[in-house]
Task: structure prediction
Amino acid sequence: MLLEILHRATGLYLFESRLFATGLATIISYLVAMAAFPAYIAFLRKYGCSSELEASGAKSEPVMPGGILFLAVILLTGLIAVRLNSYVISALAIYAFFSVIGAVDDLAKVVNKRRVALGTLKKEDYQYKADGISARLRLTLYLALPLVVAILAYKYIPGINGRITIPFVSTARAFPYLPFWLFIPLMALTIAVMANGVNFTDGFDTLATVPLITNLLFVGVVAYVSSNASWSTYLLVPYIAGLEEMLPLIGAVIGTLLAFLWFNSPPATIIMGDSGAVGLGGLLGILFVFTKSVFYIPIVGFVFLLEFCSDLLQIGYFKATRGKRILLMAPIHHHFHLKMKHKPYYREGFLAKSKIAWRMHIVSAILLVVGLVLFLKVR
Result:
């Protein structure tokens, strides 16, 4: 918004450019987060804000939740670079709401950890009672708010009209239209699945962060191309007016995540927590909806979808077979960890975790390229 004021005051096109605003938002959010994280980590450590029971009180113990600082930095950067429109307001509403849900769970885990230390809660009951919001209420909230936002977006945003793109199919040959009763549940389900998928992935240091960046790069490129009438016509992608305003917001998120990686690199000094993972997952979900690229999630967001489906299948199979499991442990990165850590050269637990995280990072980067090629050219 500050850039918009400067543009009106000076008339300089530089302040109007969305590419300049995106680059500025990325740099500012990175610098602000880098400056804020040390003091924030010290504050959390001072008050014992961690959900880990092991090595409790150790100076090397990672603290949480990083997601609360994410929200503050991204909103602050938004005041500088982002121009508010219906897309931005809807995305920020989803992001803020999901972050708050995650923050309640994060704070509950910290409180329950202290209860274990005081002896008012048994250690074996800790994980079961760690969540501040019950699973049923959380699921209801995950679906209810996206439904409300989806209905309002469908009604008031011209670009949200039920149209979707399909991999390998040109919009000149097929540009499917989903009726209201089908599109709205799909939009809400996409947001809820991505929120949970990112949250499930956030189990090892850096594991969720790099796939988040690659997915944000994908929707950023798609938003930039789709908001340009000439490019969208040439590349046979849908033209979506106003979507370029999402770019500075995406840049602010990426800059914040890059700063977070500095402190989350193994061994981490801070972790996202539910406030970060759930909030950013919900934001990513609505960005896929806005760019009409929901059906590219199995490609670009494969890691998140794999983590979500592995957890869902594990729970379903466990209940259906009364105690049997498909995986050693869910989500699937824990299954890989249990298989690898028994090998002699992975005796140190964090070595196996780093190997798994880096391999998933590589997969995410490759799938980003595949997704962009499919969306922009292979039609």
Observations:
- The mean pLDDT is 88.
- Residues 18-301 form one domain.
- The chain has one domain: 18-301.
